[in-house]
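Project standup — Tuesday

K.O.: blocked on the structure for the chain from last sprint. Re-posting the sequence here as requested.
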Amino acid sequence: AGRMKESLSSMDIAAVVAELRSIVGGHLDKVYHPDHGHLVFTVRSSDEGRSFVHVHVGKWLYRSAESQEMPQQPSDFAMMLRKRIANAKIVEVRQQGFERIVVIGLEKDGRHDLVLELFAEGNVILVKDGVIVQPLTSKAWKHRDVRARKEYVFPPPIPDPASMRPEQFLDLLKASGSDLVRTLATRLNLGGRYSEELCVRTGLAKDRRAADMTIEEASRLLEAISSMRSEAGVGGKGHVYIKD
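H.V.: unblocked you, prediction finished:
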């Protein structure tokens, strides 16, 4: 039996963002924080009424029509978000490059960005004019300091296939010591399922060494990634992939 998915890949996030674009133009109503790893935003949109956007930190992002009972006593983080962005107008929902990062742009007393980092342990960070107001989790790395009043810096980007030429993509494949399917899964954050699907669509053996690819094969892979991304970007449609 296949294992359940445990988090979203960059391709899944492209699909989720396409679906969430319908909240643009609506207003962010309330913020709830049922437990440390789960935030819920109530959204009012003129045409669709009220819905709920859920963030499970580092794992999931989705929208629901119904919601569970919410805690009466908001957390400090939820209180801070309510004070800053309750009733803000939603002006943008985008994926940062091909990262597992979603940015929700909000207008209220100037521009705020709610940055949802959905990789590793994940984080939710409120940013105003490029400066961090407050993160859910404060943390510092060598290249990055995610704490209040620091400039918000995105993590070092993973390569975005949309802006790569076949030669650059071939360099990425040649630099890998692994097979094709693992290289696609880890270097592009595509995850195993979509990487296997790419091998099927391009007719390339998944266990071939990535370093052995030719320029023609690299080019075929880029085209397949691009068409899968545009399928994901249609939004509102699920796809069933059948193994073998």
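K.O.: great, moving the ticket to review. The chain has a mean pLDDT of 92. The first strand starts at residue 27 and ends at 35.
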